[in-house]
Amino acid sequence: MAATHNGIHYYDVSTRYARISVSDSGGNGLPVLFIHGNSSSKEIFCHQVEYFKKNYRVLALDLPGHGASSNASEPRKAYSMPAYAHTVIEVLEKIGINRVVVFGWSLGGHIGLEMLALFPKMIGLMICGTPPVAAGKDNVALGFRQSEHMGLAGKADFTEEDVKNYAYETVGINAPHDQFIIDAVARTDGLSRQYMFEAFTSPQATDQRLLAETSKIPLAIVNGSGDPFINAQYIEGLNYQNLWQEQVISLAGVDHAPFWEAPTRFNPILADFLCDF
């Protein structure tokens, strides 16, 4: 179902595993795709859509099992980082995108890292709240901090309290907690959390650390200094070959979603990154 609101076009794209809801500012500018995190939705990028739509073709989508997209027809196959990446690529191919810069937040950043090996049309990647980790539970653990609500990331069935806790923690305790954020968590197919997390910690998972360290395209990393989920020291200590500005950028006083909590500080950084393309 297609619609237009405030100059943004909304439409669905049929893919192998799900019907995907897309927002698209249109135009002839460089396409920039925003990929949301676990149990979120494309609406979390509203501040970026407004900021960048004049100069870029701003795209965002809801992952399978999230937001206005359908649940996956084959959950066990569709709900993993590599499968999400293939779904995103299928959408981009179907709407005719020949070059794109991707911003991925949290799970979305992991999907972006997967795309490094799968999609040569991605010419730049910025990630946020996303530790690039090697395969296996022990390697995954190196990239994360054990926080009170970290276990919710892979939990299938949420109580009302779980919904609120996860929503508040992921966007930042001191950030605005708009109702759509809570609704997005409540709407998410719980199997998408469970199966994604199981696949992520499997020995057969992708070595995202290797992809990040050897990336031939520019990789930008912007994190909040107060992020309760990630091990900042681990992320800053990797041996990147093509890290934008040769440093991991840390924004003081914000948590897991700086683009939402502090858009006036975040957006100019992404704008600088996009100027390189």
TrEMBL record:
Record organism: Xenorhabdus stockiae
UniProt xrefs under Gene3D superfamilies: alpha/beta hydrolase
Molecular functions per Gene Ontology: hydrolase activity
Full protein name: Epoxide hydrolase
Superkingdom of the organism of origin: Bacteria
Keywords: Hydrolase
PANTHER family per the UniProt record, alphabetical: MONOACYLGLYCEROL LIPASE
Domain AB hydrolase-1: 32-267
